[in-house]
Amino acid sequence: MEFYTNAACLLALERLAYGVVWKKPQVVRSLSSLVGRSGNEVELIFGAVRLFKLVQLYVFGTWYYMHFGTDFPSLSVLQFMVGGSVLAFGQILNILVWNKIGIEGVCYGVKFGRNIPWCTEFPFNTFNHPQYLGAILTVWGMFVFCWNEASDWYMIPTIETVLYMSSMYYLEV
Fold this sequence. Notes:
about 170 residues
């Protein structure tokens, strides 16, 4: 259980950071100025995005290594089809978001005076938070590949789901 507590704390850092960006953009503006990047807040946030992806990779990789070492889990056809489909749809959503609103939209440019046109095309006309949904589905898709050999395969995706949903409904409103 200690691993999951630590994992949740590490993964929560990203959600908290983006909550600060959304609710207190002046903090990011000050930080950007402090490091000599005044006016480049979006680029600073993009650096944080990459850092947080490394944190996710560390957590996911550690979980995987604890369960499988350097071996691959055996996949049933059902696992491959379900996991692959869920993961692929999640990635499609993320790619569409990046293609529609770009780095400035994804990295909260609107909070720093950047002109981000409101997008009403798919996936924004279908989902309230398509990027977060894409991230959640991607994580679930990856871990579905482990359901037959790891009894706790759902723990990290559950943590990520709770964190992303909390961010959507409490931090970035």
